[in-house]
Amino acid sequence: MTAAITMPIWVINLDSSFERYESTVKQLKQLGLTAERFSAVYGKNLTAEQVEACYDRHLNKSLFRRPLSPGEIGCYLSHRALWQRMVDENIVVAIVLEDDIEVEPGFPDVLALVEKLQQWDMIKLSDNRNGQGYQSLPLTADYRLVNFRKVPNCTTGYAISLQGAKKLLARPKIFRPVDVDLQFYPELDFTVYSILPYTVWPSSRFESEIDLMSGGSRKGGTAFWHNIRYRVQLGWVRKTAISGDLSTISQS
Question: Domain extents for the chain?
């Protein structure tokens, strides 16, 4: 039997999408897990002044391929609010889940492994594709920790350490989507791992709230040369960096 999980589990959920939260909580309860709802930031409700205070349009233009949508800004602010809560309350490790997920029975076992691991910033617990990572560290007969040259998209589910939260909050303003920012981990000396195989997956039953808020797409406004520059920047990271040194990971 898996030991009791002591880390907080937070589920990011818009006030208008309570059905998603109920679906997630029901799945977690069936696995003996308790979660706390976090009321997500609805990007379209942000005032121009609020957007200006958190969003760097100059860096967005030079370091991303298009302007962020209101949904992407709200999504990023939701995650940042939870990272800030970790710092304010001195929470050593937390689990952050978005609300459009399917949870497999092995999820508690993965969380128990997370609690034993040390010397990491983020461990992704979910992805929208079945990637295999770059290097691998066996944890049990069933699970392994991997690092990446190409960090996966999605912030559907992840574990984050207090050290990692502080690094992510070092950016004074946002300028890329949160999941894309994580792919530029060397900028913050940030480590990203995953425990495979994944036990949390994006649900096909729910449409992306960000896409709904953006009229079905987040690709509008992409300029050709901005896209080329962005692709070169991301390609350089993938060619020259690895998202974490597995030899530094310890298990308690």
Answer: 9-251
pLDDT, one tens digit for every residue, the chain (252 residues): 456 889 999 999 999 998 999 999 999 999 999 999 999 999 999 999 999 999 999 999 999 999 999 999 999 999 999 999 999 999 999 999 999 999 999 999 999 999 999 999 999 999 988 788 999 999 999 999 999 999 998 899 999 999 999 999 999 999 999 999 999 999 999 999 999 999 999 987 655 555 455 444 445 567 788 899 999 999 999 999 999 999 999 998
Residue from 54, 56, 76, 74 nearest 64 by CA: 56
C-alpha distances (whole Å) from 230 to each of 151, 174, 175, 235 are 15, 16, 13, 8
For residue 56, give the 3-state DSSP assignment: coil
206-213 contact pairs (CB < 8 A, 24+): 206/20, 206/23, 206/99, 206/100, 208/100, 209/14, 209/17, 209/40, 209/71, 209/75, 209/100, 210/69, 210/71, 210/72, 210/75, 211/71, 212/71, 213/43, 213/44, 213/69, 213/70, 213/71, 213/74
Per-residue tokens: 248: 């530094």
**Cis bond before residue 152 (omega within 30° of 0):** no
Specify the 3-state DSSP secondary structure of 97: strand
Read out DSSP for 207-249?
Answer: --HHHHHTTT-S-TT--HHHHHHHHHHHHHHHHH--S--GGG-
- What pTM, to 2 d.p., does this model score? 0.92
Longest CA–CA separation in the chain, Å:
54
The CATH architecture assigned to 9-251 reads Alpha-Beta Complex (3.90)
